[in-house]
Here is the input.
Amino acid sequence: MSLVPLSTWTLFVLACLALALTPGPNMLLLVSRTLAQGRRAGLLTLAGTQSGLAFHVAAVALGLAALLVAVPLAYDAIRIAGALYLAWLAWQTWNSRDELNDAAVVAIPATRLYRDGALTGILNPKVALFELALFPQFIDPARGSVLAQTLILGATQLLVVLPFDAACVFAAAEVRRFFAARSTWSHWSKRALSGVFAALALRLVLDVRK
Here is the structure.
């Protein structure tokens, strides 16, 4: 008896495809960052957002995500920390100098780009709660290890999401290449990225659970 039947796995893949095609905070972040700072920045941020998603899958598998449901203070602490971090990114991006050429864009440390993507994902408790609600629908304790089933489904979700988010990055990079010759592109794309960070921060601030 397999841990995850093919029919269940297929339904899960379809659910992941629907989610991947639905615009969300990660997609908005990846597109805006690529438009402002180039394909390299977008791909490194993508590596970070994938790590953030993997973190939440692991949290569900280990039961940590259930803590956010049981202890509202933990949820609010992560939510506020995420909002503060995003607000700091908005301020930092707004006040950074305009990248006038590709060399300036490449100078952005890879660790910083990865970190921004990872922490933006990890410090969003909404993702943890969503994963906690999604996975039990496809897990059957009677078939064996719940941990193993969760990890199988989690790996599937990561593999489904990755190509869609990567396609967004490459598409945004082409748009950037088309408009990059305009003298004001760097300035206004950076302003737009700062606005995305600020909007995501505000979203977390206002996300008070009933």
Observations:
- The mean pLDDT is 84.
- The CA atoms of residues 72 and 209 lie 8 Å apart.
